[in-house]
Automatic annotation (TrEMBL):
Record-given protein name: Glycogen synthase
Keyword entries, A-Z: Glycogen biosynthesis, Glycosyltransferase, Transferase
Any GO MF annotation of the entry: alpha-1,4-glucan glucosyltransferase (ADP-glucose donor) activity
Catalytic reaction equation(s): [(1->4)-alpha-D-glucosyl](n) + ADP-alpha-D-glucose = [(1->4)-alpha-D-glucosyl](n+1) + ADP + H(+)
Pathway(s) of this molecule: Glycan biosynthesis; glycogen biosynthesis
Family: Belongs to the glycosyltransferase 1 family. Bacterial/plant glycogen synthase subfamily.
Keyword Glycosyltransferase: yes
Domain Glycosyl transferase family: 293-430
EC number, as in UniProt: 2.4.1.21
Residues in Starch synthase catalytic domain copies: 13-236
Amino acid sequence: MQKRPRNYWKNMKILFVSSEVVPFAKTGGLADVAGALPKALSALGEEVIVFTPRYKKTDPVKFKLKSINPEISVGTLPGSKVKVYFFEHYDFFGSREELYQVKGCDYPDNLERFTAFCQKVLSFIKEIGWTPDVIHCNDWQTGLIPAHLKTGGSKIASVYSVHNMEYLGLFSKEKLLSTGLGWEEYTPEKMEFWNNISLGKAGLVYADAVCTVSETYAKEIQTPEYGCGLDGLLRERSKDVYGIVNGIDYDIWDPAIDPCIAKHYSADNIEDKLENKLELQKDFNLPMVAGIPLIGIVSRLADQKGFDILAGAIEEIMKLKCQLVLLGTGDPKYHKLFTEMMVKYPEHISVKLGFNAALAQQIYAGSDFFLMPSRYEPCGLGQLISFRYGTIPIVRKTGGLADTVHPGEGFIFEEYSSSALLDSIKRAVAFHKKNGAAWKEQLRRIMELDYSWGSSAKKYIELYRKVKL
């Protein structure tokens, strides 16, 4: 057993690098993690700073950013003293309407954009004279940082987090030299990936530890089914692969104070949740009936999220005398399907295509059940939010859903099929019909589950200490 040095338990300097951070810019769950985990680490006594690009949508006046020099501005994470440093680059970030793509097409200079971002991270810490113990990198946009640290002989440790294995940051091999690395990196053991280069693979190869957002997903990505062609590499590095489930920020997700919902409530007055259900039915133009089971979905409309098996079961679901509300956007074929279902079953299904954060919170508060039939789900935040709002999740047993939704807390199915999904919804609807003491007790129990960031942050600190040794 490796002997721990005398300074093992001292507080660390952690640089958290992410291409998106709530509330400044967001496309997915990565931004939620980047906006919450650093605050939790800081609350435990660690010295944390965040580094991210400043996009056009990040208003410097609104967020009270201060310019340090033409390339760096600084602000703070709301509700904390954690400093957030922004990379100012008008051509690459400040002029772009979106973060990575427009109308489904990636920006053609994404490699150049995020190479500049990664290189600025490394020069920035020298400029301010602050040397972190660990740089925590997130997804392919930051994958070059561990590569530059290792090939440059730096003693700074790195952790590379995989939030979704499918996003590998693939680019033409002809662009390799633009990353600041040499042709010696173009081998199957390093950055080469099927005649391309992968910035995500660079992170997987060179980071001192690889972390993903649930224990089950950490195991799944080491299999051919979920490893996206890199399962062999991950199996070789299995002793360095960790899974730590995400948390949610309970200062934001709290039905007792949520400004977006019709009626505040908690586990102590769970009956007040009903007013949110009636208001949600009204907003979605569904019959306002207290006793009918209401299933909510907030999701990207994609096969990965289980919409192929939901499509196969939707007609039978409509026969169960329940209601379904859906908020999201994605594959046009699902836009068409659910719009047609809304016309055919106007009293049972209502869909709003697009995304609205306030409406999403109303769905969490007003639904009886929250549906996540994902083919794979690295962690998932929806089930954790639904717990907090006393809304029972219906989930497929995969990734973070398997790690967080247990029997007695939600309705779970394992086989990826329309029939298995339908069966789980039938069981949920049958349970709702009881709608008595057992129902209220279940809601109270899931509302008292703790998936705040505190416990997860402690696990990250232990991981940082391991890689720092």
